[in-house]
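User: what does the whole thing look like in 3D?
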Amino acid sequence: MITQALRRTGQWYSIPLLLLLWQFSVSSGLVESRLLPSLGRVWGALVANLDNGVLIYHTGITLSRAAAGFVLAGAIGIPFAMSMARSVTARNLFEPIFFFGYPIPKIALFPVFTYVFGIGSPSKIAFTFLECLYPIVVTSYLGFRGIPNRLIWTAQNMGTPPAATLWRVMLPAALPSIFAGLRVALPISIIVIVLTEMIGDSRGLGYYISVSGTRFEFQNVYAAMLVIGVCGFVLDRILLWLRRRMVHWEREPAA
Amino acid sequence: MLAPYLSVPSSITVALWELAADGELHPAMLSSLYRLVLGFVGGTAAGVLVGLAAGVIPVVRYFFDPLVAFLYSIPKIAFLPVFLLLFGLGHASKISIIAFSCFFPVFIASRHAVLAVNKLLIWCARNMGTPGPTLFFRVMVPAAAPQLFAGVRIGLAHAFVILFAAELIGSQGGLGTLIAEGEEAARFDLMFAGIVVFAMLGFASDRALMAIRRRVLRGQIIGTVEQVVR
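Assistant: Here's the predicted 3D structure for the full assembly of 485 residues, as structure tokens:
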């Protein structure tokens, strides 16, 4: 019991160690404290900004945009992947778009998105949708294609109607791949939202970080990063929990 | 018919030709590539080395695991103000933030790859008296290579995103600046030309990476159905 607890703390020693190092290097004056504010000041900024609601306001905006883009990409991407796997016409039509477009950095299109959808939330949501769509469609498409034929044949042999084959056989068989794609897309949605907010917006955590950086209020920058980190971690855990609930017959891969 | 901020392929081609002819495209492309390659190579090398070390040596793993678990979900572009202040507006800030953001996916992939190597292979090699270094370089690294390349590919994609954002937010020279200038001057054909060049650069470097992968893994991918996006 105690040895196990010791081993647990032994595996997490790096974070307190680095925090100590941080505190020491700031208080001894090795690093300029304007660039790296002391831990106490970061914590103070975090508490103060959570208290007066500024950080909560920006976090709410960022999270709602990321969620909108992500959910939209999932809701459209998964049926899309399914139809690509099932219909030859859809496959011939869309496979080149997704497979050639996959390695292209789509971020370069962001200026165009701002022109088409305006500078506020719609352009960010649309862009997040596009960035999340690719991993979701490609991964779930490969999952649908990888379903062993004998599963479908067996179902058809026993007289399963097409709709039931889709819902009770194909969808469950592809669920692990679908969740793999969602798990790739989730951090992308947060990254893209923060990034586009940094490029041009007046709300959201990305804006908050860039404006605090130019004002030399680096304690606020670190506080906002902390909030983003916690949000990303919690969202990932939620997705993993959902996967455990829905794909109860298969354990998730490590990490 | 068409909104003024959109453009058609023919005028984009003309704009591309114009940019190439007056010598604007060449230096912008070169400085973007310079930042990308140095940052990507640096971050990937660090990620592979530390990741392999973390896979083999528990102490290294315990040091990096909690750090990476926390930092991974933070968009690395959030560190841009810090990097800009440390390294200025020139090449150094872009190279360092690209390297920083490439490190994480590569580290995670190589750490997991080493840990996921089939234990039978290692036991066999040990049984036949393979010395430690040979075991590492001839058994573990080749066995971990396919997964490692998956991480490197994600790192490359991250590198392009960070490069574009960093050049757009604060930079001198580079394709991002070229696109932003075209946008500000309302020369949307120039903006699209820059976007096309950036996209082609990303596509070409991904293909180059996949070609290297096929060459390095040529022994391992014979007779398997490759489930990679080609």
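In plain terms: Chain A touches chain B through 51 residues (CB under 8 Å). The mean pLDDT of chain A is 85.
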